[in-house]
Amino acid sequence: MRRFRAGSSLDWGFLNNAQGVFMKRLIPLFAVATLAAASASVQAEGLYGEVGYTPLKLESSVGGLDFSSKPSNVRGIIGYELSNNLAVEGMLGLSAQDSSVKVNGINSGVKAEVDNMVGVFVKPKIEVVEGLELFGRLGAARTKLSVGNETDSATSVAYGLGASYKLNSALSLNADYMTYHDKDDTTLKGVTVGVGYKF
């Protein structure tokens, strides 16, 4: 993502062109593979969905200046369990609230908003005790960010860890910590707490 630059309202240093093109092609291919894997099986019991609230932390550093903002999103996930220990997921996050941008801890008067996030992931998981599951996520996410009157998008490797507790055979409580962007001295991270439903 373009990094912030002194004197500029938006300067997120996104991926270089070659990597950006590769990642743009990777996401739709991975998404198609995910949908194909789900539709190829006649067992609907592997399909699940999640919805949660995600406070985010955006940080960037350039030229001795530290930029930060704390917007928030609502995140939805559709996943399919390939086995007891592996799932594939598609993610969509939408803006819930913008936040002021701080420069070296001082409010700049400029607002930042994560308009949307789209991602695809593989999700290894393990049940540690009955009903409690620990998992990881690894994939790619594309994020659209608005700072002031400027908007830009970026694609990055995304990863995180989380836990899920089954309330019954269908409902679960979920929490995870994800890094959605980590490139060019810019990071976007967030904790999500939500509920899941297994179809």
Could you provide a short overview of the structure?
With 199 residues, the chain is mostly beta strands.
Can you tell me about this structure?
The chain has 199 residues and is mainly β. The chain has one domain (17-198): Porin. It contains 1 helix and 10 strands. It has one helix at residues 17-40; strands at residues 47-62, 65-69, 72-83, 86-97, 99-103, 106-129, 132-147, 150-166, 171-183, 186-198. Strands 1, 2, 3, 4, 5, 6, 7, 8, 9 and 10 form a 10-stranded antiparallel sheet that branches. Strand 1 and strand 2 (65-69) form a beta hairpin. It starts with 16 loop residues before the first helix and ends with a strand. The relative contact order is 0.22.
CATH class: Mainly Beta
Total helical elements: 1
Q: Termini separation (Å)?
A: 36 Å
Structural class: mainly beta
Which sequence of SSEs, written as H and E, runs from N to C? HEEEEEEEEEE
Oligomer: single chain
- Per DSSP E runs of 2 or more residues, the count of β-strands stands at 10
Measured on Cα atoms, how large is the radius of gyration?
Answer: 18 Å
Nearest-integer average pLDDT: 85
Task: Let me know the largest β-sheet.
Answer: 10 strands, antiparallel
Q: Do you know the CATH architecture?
A: Beta Barrel
Portion of residues in beta strands equals over 45%
Low-confidence stretches: 2-22, 37-42
How helix-rich are the residues, as a percent range?
10-25%
CATH topology: Porin
Tally of individual domains: 1
Characterize the overall form: elongated
Subcellular location: Cell outer membrane
Signal peptide: 1-44
Protein name: Porin family protein
Domain Outer membrane protein beta-barrel: 30-199
